[in-house]
Amino acid sequence: MKITSVSAVYPRYRHVAKSWRTKLWQIVVRVETDAGVTGYGYGGGGLAAVEIVNGHFKELLEGRTLDSTADIESLWDHLYYESIPYGRKGVAIMALSGVDLALWDALGKAESTPVAELLGGVKKDRVRAYATGADTDWYAELGFSAHKMPHRWNGSPGDFDSAIASAKQAREAFGPAAEIMFDVYMSWNTEVAVEMAGRLAEFKVHWFEDVLTPDDLDANAALRPLVKPTRIAGGEHEFTHIGFADVERAGAYDVWQPDITWCGGITAGLRIVEMGVKAGVQVVPHRGGEVWGLHLIAASDCQDFGEVLPGTRDGERDELWMGEPQAKNGYLAINDAPGFGVELNEDML
Ligand SMILES: [Mg+2]
Which of 168, 172, 243, 276 has the most other CB atoms within 10 Å of its CB? Predict the structure, then answer.
């Protein structure tokens, strides 16, 4: 089939936290074909990425052939190459991610098969989910067996106590067999992380995430042995297999966390997983419980671990994609609908 039209739009979010996300959160990419199927993808980069798709990628894609996964791979390489002057990382690759996922969705729909089947077939019938957020007790009630808590270093000694209190609450709510993790969003430093590893040792924290910035690859690598057996996780702010090659060379993380809607889509994700497996690290995609990562986890050698963000017990949420798999008793499963198996909520456009 031929690609007839490509367009991106920024949804009308009502529940996005005020921050860089206000105008630079997730985009929807639509790819139409002459076979009558339409593919939808989810990318990052907000209004800037919409401009990149509609102002540049569109003209590179319309009229091109889309009949195989090899076609998607060569289209990805073409868009990457053509966007090098302003791209390589960040918003341009977030835009490319949305396009890539829309191409995979369109191909799956044209072949009446889930994306996971295009990737070689489902290896995990169900994926263990972990709940990220601050509503610890609620996630335990929902049946999750793994939980990641936010923590921020504000510069006071009380920050150690707040981490200990969170870990204690999580251990009590989830029990001894659960995995508990901390995401510190680049607010700790090496000294804090080493001190935390000691003070939190009794709680057996599975990983510390985003301890240092992604520009400190060597410092991340140096930190790994200092906090064992807790792992160092990172990579949600890294882009493409080319970026992850630097991560690998530095030995920066025990756990790689590419975001499939940011790092270059499924096409880049496959290359990153292959590299990670060879390097002997664990690959646990960021927000991997959403369909875009979940199909890759189910069909690849990613860890059996998918991130879900349930929000809070009484919180309201935007529902942009309808039909997304929901965690049941702490597990997720993809459905057998073609493509990614979700429908766009057009009311949000
Ligand atoms: Mg994170």
Answer: 276
